[in-house]
Amino acid sequence: MNDRATTGEGRLARRMHRGAQFLGCEIAVLGGAMSWVSERNLVSAISNAGGFGVIACGAMTPALLDAEIAATKTLTAKPFGVNLITMHPDLFELIEVCKRHDVSHVVLAGGLPPAGSLDAIKANGAKLICFAPALALAKKLIRSGVDALVIEGMEAGGHIGPVSTSVLAQEILPEIHDQLPVFIAGGIGKGQAIAGYLDMGAAGVQLGTRLVCATESIAHPNFKKAFIRASAREAIASVQIDARLPVIPVRALKNAGTEAFTVKQREVAQLLDEGKVEMAEAQLQIEHYWAGALRKAVIDGDVENGSLMAGQSVGMVKDEAPVAQILATLMAEAAEALEARAA
To answer: pLDDT digits over 110-155, tens only?
Structure first.
């Protein structure tokens, strides 16, 4: 018996089968939704390479999302998903846009699904994927009927929780992996880590930072150079300066933009003090700040004043390469690790 079944490649395929089948793709790798970066070009490239691309809706209007989904469809015939933010004021309109385009999977980020949103997504026939930063929340989401979960640790780029990926995986996977597909995210830069999480019961992984420097990524050359030069310790979490303002920490490479966020928090806190904004509006202002600061870096190339959102795995990003090559390298590393363990 040779065969592929007993090789690392075969073991990898078996461990990823559930996740790949759920997503409708060849390898169970979700593209992390990164505003301005996870658009038609990168999303279609990930899906065309056998993974599962995800459009980052972020602060897009329903009209912009409609156009982005349509444009992505012209670049790939493979399945892809859409990431929606729970606090978006037009969430239900965005869900309708996804329905019109027959989007197969919706990823809902930013907290518990608002009342009615889960039913609206599933009524369209789409699969719903949510983030679970704690075991209690994971169990609550499972009871509410979500189809899959992403466990993302604090090593990730962008908005983060307080607990590391490795701890969350150990705490949550044994309890729930047999109930629904679970994808691990945060700090993944090598295939060996993917193999480890698959062995623990994960159905697959989600990658963001590792794909920023893909050839197909539209991120500005300055943005990519900052990633290639950076070490893990340079990707730091933002600091909350006012306890009343529930700011979710954001991990990014330190620069002048990091300091500007502290100033922005003070401005918004003062508006709260003066009764000029409600809490929900204050949070939206913070989100809009990040969207603007990220655009400044990703699109305009202002890597000093914009936001360089990056996970700690940025230290393992060494060059620019096509998505297919990045994924093939990761899969080869994972297969080799699984084969070595079996031996």
So the answer is: 888 999 999 999 998 999 999 999 999 999 999 999 999 999 999 9
Residue 251 φ then ψ, to 5°:
-95, 125
Spatial contact of 19 and 204, defined as CB atoms under 8 Å apart: yes
- CA-nearest of 5, 25, 3, 23 to 14 is 5
pLDDT at 5: 58
CB-CB contact of 154 with 251 (8 Å): yes
Residue-range domain boundaries for the chain: 4-219+317-342, 221-312
- As a dihedral over the C-alpha atoms of residue 60, residue 327, residue 126, residue 34, rounded to 10 degrees, the angle is -20
pTM to 2 decimal places: 0.94
Joined tokens for residue 70: 């349509």
Instruction: Tell me how far apart the alpha carbons of residues 334 and 45 are, in angstroms, rounded to a whole number.
Output: 21
Architecture of the domain made up of 4-219+317-342: Alpha-Beta Barrel (3.20)
pLDDT above 70 (res 31):
yes
Within the chain, residue ranges assigned H as helices are 8-23, 40-48, 62-75, 91-100, 117-123, 135-144, 165-176, 191-199, 209-212, 221-229, 256-273, 279-298, 323-342
As given in the structure block, the two tokens for residue 302 are 């202002």
Is residue 84 predicted with pLDDT exceeding 60? yes
